[in-house]
Amino acid sequence: MPVITVANPKGGAGKSTATLVLATSLAEQGASVVILDCDPNRAIKGWRAGSSRNPVLVDGDVTESSITAKLDEYRKKFQFVFVDLEGTASRLMSRALARAQLVVIPIQASPTDAELAARAINLIQEEEQAFEKIIPYQILFTRTSPAIATKLERQITSQLKASEVPMFRNHLNERSAYKAMFFYQLDLNELDSRDVNGLPAARDNAFRLAEELVNLVIGAKEAA
Predict the structure, then answer these.
(1) What are the residue boundaries of the structural domains of the chain, listed by start?
(2) Of 28, 58, 59, 106, which sits most exposed with the smallest number of CB within 10 A?
(3) What's the average pLDDT block by block, 10 residues per block, for the chain (224 residues)?
(4) Fold topology of 3-223
(5) Which residue windows are coiled coil (predicted)?
(6) Which segments within the chain are labelled E, that is strand?
(7) How far is CA 158 from CA 110, 204, 223, in A?
């Protein structure tokens, strides 16, 4: 089953949020999902779903010596395996990329994020040469306005398109519901609309992203 690595060397890019939103959305649709929390901050390690009908397993005890064996084990048991990574050059990063069917690189619409995303892409390309395999990747814009793109966002998107950098069509919008997932330790469908604003829109955004992710994984598999 596919290993999806979520990586960016910049903190605050929305990496852990993207991982959790995508993983729980797939689980809500009936998929079996596990997250390996390999980020030093362990933002997802303590997260637990409440009464999810199909809960996401979170493994926060992963090291560079154990990750390969764990990935091989989880791929046999789960339909989707997510790896939340810091995104800097390391043996842990290298071993995760060696097993990845897709790398998601979350960025905010800022020059700094775009620059560090380029570093992540360079790491992927180095691993491609080392392992003599293609490692598909996609840029995912996070914390964007659902209403209208900013001028800076349009400029960065235009530059990435000109460089033929693959990007998600859908963005992970700025939604209070995504922050509430961490605060209440619940997934989007467990949250109560009386406590959190904009839940229907957040759920729809998550569903569309998860749907696009599945299509990307299928496309990468067919291309391979």
Answers:
(1) 3-223
(2) 59
(3) 87 87 93 91 78 78 90 94 84 88 91 85 89 91 87 88 93 94 90 92 96 89 66
(4) Rossmann fold (3.40.50)
(5) none
(6) 3-7, 33-37, 57-59, 80-85, 102-107, 137-144, 172-173
(7) 13, 26, 26
